[in-house]
Design a protein that fits this description.
Elements (H helix, E strand, L loop, with lengths): L1 H20 L126 H5 L1 H14 L5 E12 L6 E11 L3 E12 L3 E16 L2 E10 L6 E12 L3 E10 L4 E9 L1 E2 L4 E12 L11 E13 L5 E12 L1 H9 L5 E12 L1
Antiparallel strand pairs: 1-2, 1-13, 2-3, 3-4, 4-5, 5-6, 6-7, 7-8, 8-10, 9-10, 10-11, 11-12, 12-13
Length: 379
């Protein structure tokens, strides 16, 4: 019984082994299968059958040469072929560019630079020429190599250049100005007054002459002075002056050391100031200003003011200390020519403090108002 069971088990195992060694016949055995792809696929149930090929859609780009693959690209064996570019081999039309509205037009050349060719070396401190103050930039060098030297000679051209340089900066000028030459109605018998100045020199250095005085028909010359000054321009509209003044009053002659200035303030106000120290130790000063108000091209109204001061009392000159005199004038002139202008006007003068007292003791009026008629001229 046991032996029969063992024989049965052995027979069953042999049969199973035989069945395992002999695979089941495939239903599609003997059929030619298409070549498998490089990637192993799972065994299909239709292995060995020849599958009908599906109809491929007609390639619209068939017959067109395909573009060469990019250099360096290597296709691995068994890799799927890259899909063909549907536009390979076609010449793509160029996109139309927008028409240039200026095509065919000749464009104007850019404006020429007025400073082209000029060297613009920076000034010390990083300043440019525009940052430098007026007069701060050095003058350009004088050109010495001229073609005219070869025609007229070096000596003749050097003389001509010297004259040109002198007339454009080194020229000497002169002027004589008659500011006031007038008749005054106030004093007994009528009075007169003059104010003259002249100068000679250049734009910076000048020799200046001044004279002024007054008198009357009854007493003659009461005051006369002359100044000789050296004048130097110290600013654009200001001259510093130093020199000597001498008074020619009868019995009262004096000589003064003089220092002062003349300037033109903004809006064309002319101002003169001076201090005088006499040989007797007397210190006096004078401040004067005037303004030309042009009513027309030839009609000019000139207001004028003058103030006199003294540091001490000077009895023999009828002068007290402090503010001694003040004068206001208003003159209307008509310029027949710029150099020749008659005028009419009024003048008011008053003495103050101790000066007024000394004038009263001398029998003179400390306050006067006069009508004036005169001439202003210059040469």
């Amino acid at each position: 019984m046991i032996r029969a069971s063992l024989l049965g088990l052995l027979f069953a195992g042999s049969a199973n082994a035989a069945f395992a060694q002999a695979p089941e016949a495939a239903p599609h055995a003997g059929h030619a299968m298409p070549a498998a792809s490089s990637a192993p696929a799972a065994a299909g149930s239709h292995a060995g059958h020849q599958m009908p090929q599906p109809a491929a859609a007609a390639d619209p780009h068939a017959g067109h040469p395909a573009p060469a693959s990019q250099p360096g690209a290597v296709q691995a064996q068994g890799d799927a072929q890259p899909s063909a570019d549907p536009h390979a081999g076609h010449v793509m039309p160029t996109a139309p560019a927008s028409a240039d509205p200026h095509a065919g037009h000749v464009m104007p050349a850019p404006a020429a630079d007025p400073h082209a060719g000029h060297a613009t070396a920076p000034a010390p401190g990083g300043q440019t020429g525009a940052d430098l103050p007026v007069g701060g930039a050095p003058p350009p060098p004088v050109i010495r190599d001229n073609m005219a030297d070869q025609v007229f000679g070096v000596v003749a051209m050097q003389r001509a250049r010297s004259i040109l340089e002198a007339e454009h900066g080194a020229v000497r000028l002169s002027k004589l100005m008659l500011n006031l030459a007038e008749y005054q109605s106030g004093p007994p018998g009528g009075g007169y007054r003059w104010d003259v100045q002249g100068w000679y020199g250049g734009d910076v250095n000048r020799a200046v002459f001044k004279s002024e005085g007054e008198g009357s028909g009854a007493e003659g010359v009461e005051l006369a002075e002359v100044q000789g000054l050296y004048s130097r321009a110290v600013a654009r509209y200001t001259d510093f002056q130093i020199g000597v003044r001498h008074d020619f009053e009868p019995q009262k002659a004096r000589t003064y050391a003089t220092v002062g200035f003349e300037s033109q303030f903004p809006y064309w106000f002319d101002v003169e100031a001076a201090a005088f120290l006499s040989d007797r130790g007397d210190l006096i000063a004078r401040l004067e200003g005037f303004y030309d108000l042009r009513l027309t091209q030839r009609l000019v109204l000139q207001p004028q003011a003058e103030l006199k001061l003294s540091a001490q009392k000077i009895p023999d000159l009828n002068t007290g200390s402090g503010v001694t005199h003040a004068e206001l004038g208003l003159r209307l002139r008509y310029e027949i020519r710029r150099e020749f202008a008659p005028y009419i006007g009024v003048a008011y003068e008053r003495a103050f403090g101790g000066t007024a007292d000394l004038l009263r003791r001398a029998g003179k009026d400390p306050e006067t108002a006069t009508f004036v008629l005169g001439l202003r001229a210059w040469f």
